[in-house]
Structures
1.
Amino acid sequence: MSARAGSGPALDFWYEFASTYSFLAAERIEMLAAEAGVAVRWRPFLLGPIFAAQGWSSSPFNLYPAKGRNMWRDFARQAARLGLRVVAPDPFPMNGLTAARIAAALDEAMRPSFSRAVYRAEFLDGRDISQRPNLAPLLRGLGHEPETVFALAASEAVKSRLRAETELAQSLGLYGAPSFVCADGELFWGNDRLEDALAWANGERWALEP
Amino acid sequence: MSARAGSGPALDFWYEFASTYSFLAAERIEMLAAEAGVAVRWRPFLLGPIFAAQGWSSSPFNLYPAKGRNMWRDFARQAARLGLRVVAPDPFPMNGLTAARIAAALDEAMRPSFSRAVYRAEFLDGRDISQRPNLAPLLRGLGHEPETVFALAASEAVKSRLRAETELAQSLGLYGAPSFVCADGELFWGNDRLEDALAWANGERWALEP
């Protein structure tokens, strides 16, 4: 149900392609996880159905304008700390369905590089990542044959796999992205909790009561 | 409008007595601000009217159960990192109106110790901080005469001061607590951003574009 069992510390990284802070986590997670000796499983999912189930028709950053304004400012500040200059995609949120299906279709080992490329196209270059013509060069740059991947991503098997992942995410208690889930089910929400999640995966419990 | 002008770096700390993460910020801010050489102004306000204005009848942690469940767990983890064992007040959110009026009524120099005492009673001891009999010992312990303070806190002058502070908070773009506002109006939301806010108050801009 969760990250690889029986082979050292592991962490599931649940991400949504429309999510600004998922992008920042995607930029940070590989180096931090390597330092921590934690294996990461990249698990794309869709926030749309989860938001819809709690009555939201769009991103909370659109529904609540003050929250949205500060998110964009904070996103720029946090990105600047990583040496990145971000843009707000138009429209926001981007429809990440096609990208998520592709990520779900790819071998696990290929998922991180593709996902990072999508995020960078979206949040650094302002590209519309809902469009196949914008995804094709990313795939080609990573050595994939775009048409083959598009066909696989559009298959019923992949569609239902992504649907099942999203349902699993919801059943695990996820309500936003990024989220990190440890092998024991411990859930951490948000890019700000990546370090804590890695520590937990490594057995750190601070002085938390059982 | 914002923190003390003309006398070195300063930061406004906006807090709400019902807010779990405001408690954690209240526990952390004095040591961190002292280390950073930043003067802190404690500014109690009410989230209720701001939430109501965006259509929320309660805390988002009640309205969105998955978010609420993870908040309580995260709150316990973050508190444990500070060596604190927290409880969930019942009911949640606590009505912090009386405590906020008292904080607004006290001299600025007396506000931090009173506010910390209220938070500790609420989140460590599970006491109902909406009740004067529970606030009186806290005031007495800090050398105040409770009845005098209660009378002052119930005055029209203090009531309207707190109302004006809440309206100011909303006009500054606040939508949650804790929030930190620098002298130039830069807004940081959440206990997780305290360190960044202090750095900003000290002139740090990372590589952020103008």
Note: Chain B touches chain A through 29 residues (CB under 8 Å).
2.
Amino acid sequence: MEKLVTIDIIGTGNVGTHLYRAFEGKADVNNVPSRTLDSLRTDSDIYLISVSDDAIRKVSGKVSDYLTHVCKSILDWKNDNAIIAHTSGTTPLSVISDLYPATGVFYPLQTFSKGVELNYSEIPLFIEGASADVAHRLTEVAKLITEKVYDADSEKRKTLHIASVFACNFANHLWALSEEFLAGSGLSFDMLRPLIMETCRKAGRISPYDGQTGPAVRHDMKTIQSHETALAANSDPELLEIYKLLTDSIIKRHSAK
Amino acid sequence: MEKLVTIDIIGTGNVGTHLYRAFEGKADVNNVPSRTLDSLRTDSDIYLISVSDDAIRKVSGKVSDYLTHVCKSILDWKNDNAIIAHTSGTTPLSVISDLYPATGVFYPLQTFSKGVELNYSEIPLFIEGASADVAHRLTEVAKLITEKVYDADSEKRKTLHIASVFACNFANHLWALSEEFLAGSGLSFDMLRPLIMETCRKAGRISPYDGQTGPAVRHDMKTIQSHETALAANSDPELLEIYKLLTDSIIKRHSAK
């Protein structure tokens, strides 16, 4: 039987908990609380630092110190091959690369909530390594849980993060605005949910550019004008501003067809 | 055996085709091309006008003329109880209410694509009638295909339509913008799809206000500043404008917590 790769996940928040679950049965995995580092193993192949962005450098430093100083002096530590990698999309590798010889990034692009089951094999994982060897080994480990493994340096992760702010955080905020707008007329967001779900399913199949619907893509200026008049009467001028900006943006992209 | 309600659906586009399918087996339903009105029945209980907004008045007028003049003179027509209703969210009832005694609106809030199967029982249907009797009878017919039947006058339908522009058309456009933004860095929209799908699933369960994530709701000004700097370097100034407007909108709504 092939020896399982040994992984210590430091951090017991959403990402740490889900990564632990994703690796269960596929690696010899151990979840370690970041405050105390209780139960940290000295002989792991990979140490994944799943803590808040602000704490990544500090916790990585503690793990590195533990491995390279404490272990080295007490146990004559020889695990020179171990990797320390953080799991953050927004933190550059440079934040930890001076702390330890073999560092990397192991970034799952997903929104994790406690108690929500996920199909890990569908989650894309983005890998960066301080060396080609680290990148290669992190890629092999990533392939244990998903087929969607990509190289992404800090610049590409930033681009992905910005795109996900538009695609997820901002889309969700538009849903919140529509919930707010409906509530003002005694209507419920539940009425919109089936339409939203179908819009999402469509974006799962085809390019959202090709799937665009609504008055703007039809250049239906009569409806747009009527909506703008209604929104101008709304107590919050921001809704009209957002309507105009996004309508213009759609018209601009769909006029040269 | 109870007699089935008889429905003629005029218009063979997306909405007409899907309404026909939704009623199959539940009503005596007939789908009629709007150009020729071939196969229009003189004895139906309901005539649903599913044509483009611009054609609603003209087609409704032709159906009304056929029923009240042609049929009356030739067949001594006595179907005084028949209803003519359009299926548009954006068209007021007043566009057809002067043409015929019993008019209404039968508006399914969903995005229909040919060839895409839908669970009709989840689609909300919004009803308006020129009289309480018409509204009541349209409601009974709507309940044949869905439990989600609501009263909505033209003003409420307009509010729903504006909300659905934000929730669906604009959300989809944000996905198109993120696809465009990723393409500029050689990244694929496929990488974002699992995250988008999970964001959608979350909005299907909880209030989008409560489910808001991202740098804006965390008031993470360092990340926001870094994204704005990156977007300022983008060739299209619109992306930065949208980022700023939606970020401000999120911060404003989540600061008073």
Note: The CA atoms of residues 183 and 189 of chain A lie 8 Å apart.
3.
Amino acid sequence: MNDINSSNRIQTTQSHTAAEAAINEWRRTITKLDWNKLPELLDDNVAYRNPASFDALHGKDTLITILRVVFEVFENFTYLRHFSSDIGYVLEFSARVGDENLFGVDLIEFDENGKITDLMVMIRPASVALTLATEVGKRLAASQTTE
Amino acid sequence: MNDINSSNRIQTTQSHTAAEAAINEWRRTITKLDWNKLPELLDDNVAYRNPASFDALHGKDTLITILRVVFEVFENFTYLRHFSSDIGYVLEFSARVGDENLFGVDLIEFDENGKITDLMVMIRPASVALTLATEVGKRLAASQTTE
């Protein structure tokens, strides 16, 4: 966990310029909670694999709706280490949910146009992932009944 | 999640030859359950950050003891996507615990000698991470009382 700053450099190849630009825009968008910019980063049928369920959800609107609520619950969200491959990136983050601190990762894949096609999220400790899922589920249910 | 095979190539710089050799040896060792070879890959004070607890455990023997039990519980363990950075690697895996399938990641850091100094593991779904932690805890407790 040492030398976190040096890990923020992106290793990439020339063929991944679109993905590199997109991952930087993803980080900016999420960090600034700039939800209006998020749709243009996502493939229409983006898969979202959340920390609490096995099966993926699909679709841009679904993902954005959930992320907005997750970031209402998260406090002190910070991106940490950054890893890359030929097909995508892993971004580690830390955050707080209520009194509990967590670490998590976004595993992000892009298509050739730099659109995000797949987002898998994992969080530790697992108990905090479940606390988060419960709170997000409550808020989503409440927002649906008041619409 | 498409094109998993192409993600197995390692992106690295010349300064990371030791780490690259070590991550390949880590994959081989874990995949083959070659526990006798594992000590030489680890720093004596390696930090282990498991999926269920926030705090790290430290020490080579502690990590190996836990991993041996985890891999008694895991079935169908397979490494999937592979990501790299200047300071380490992320290896995604899938496995089964009882009737439940899971995805996980190893976030692995190396020192300049190619020894693993930090292993963080996250697993989704979170409920399966807790099932795993409970089962591993039981087995560790049972092995300590029979020693």
Note: Residues 1-15 of chain A have pLDDT under 50 and may be disordered.
4.
Amino acid sequence: MPDCPICQWTPANTEYPFLWETPAWIVKLAPNQSLPGRCIVSTRRHVPDLPGLNIQEWAELHGVIRKLESAIRASLGAEMFNWSCYLNHAYRETRPEPHVHWWMVPRYREPVTLGGLRFEDPYFGSPYDHDRWQRLPEQVWEDLILLIQTALAAD
Amino acid sequence: MPDCPICQWTPANTEYPFLWETPAWIVKLAPNQSLPGRCIVSTRRHVPDLPGLNIQEWAELHGVIRKLESAIRASLGAEMFNWSCYLNHAYRETRPEPHVHWWMVPRYREPVTLGGLRFEDPYFGSPYDHDRWQRLPEQVWEDLILLIQTALAAD
């Protein structure tokens, strides 16, 4: 889909770096790391909504959820995970071209430390605040990508 | 699970009225109808997280999503849907007993009218506001339940 930013993504994209893939799904790290390990899980194919997923895509998604929760729990100590498929932004256009993607947001009962930085989850037990935004310093960001990729490979 | 409010639910519950079911899932109308047709989709079994769903539960979930989106689109004119599985509240306890449930929130580009009441979706194209709360007057609530049940039966 020519105008779809998710279709345009390539592994060379450094804002949404590649973490893992299956035949149907691509897992990327999200730019907002106020809750470390926040990921995006999107379909390789341009699928406009959840009903549009085919059997294979739906079945693989469960494996991705399992794998990703296990890896982020092991590498970052997340206690639980918030999953959502909202697709809202595409509907700001008069001709929406939504592309299925999930937000996977790890939640932390205890603060987590990465590269000397301490991350708190002040709303643990409640929905996270969409407006809390934090980009990581270059080195912490690169170390985090490697940490998660290693956990995914080991799992 | 004796202390789990979702396990304790029965069809006699009028706060979360029954809409539809499959062998693995139960669909209920949510008390907060600020966005009409907001539903909860929960597992019949006490499953603590998404990785814990078995193959049958996972496969059926896709059918529930399809069925429910189609029925709410047809009966209420929703344009698209926000799906989330957060499970946050259970983690306010020191011994969390989460039970998998999805929030299905219909989103409306145009206002919708029910029983003479007009409902707007001021944040269409963005995450909905968790703090916007609206209970329906008894008759509107009962008519809405019937409307959705009829759409689900017809689909």
Note: Chain A is about 30% helix and 20% strand.
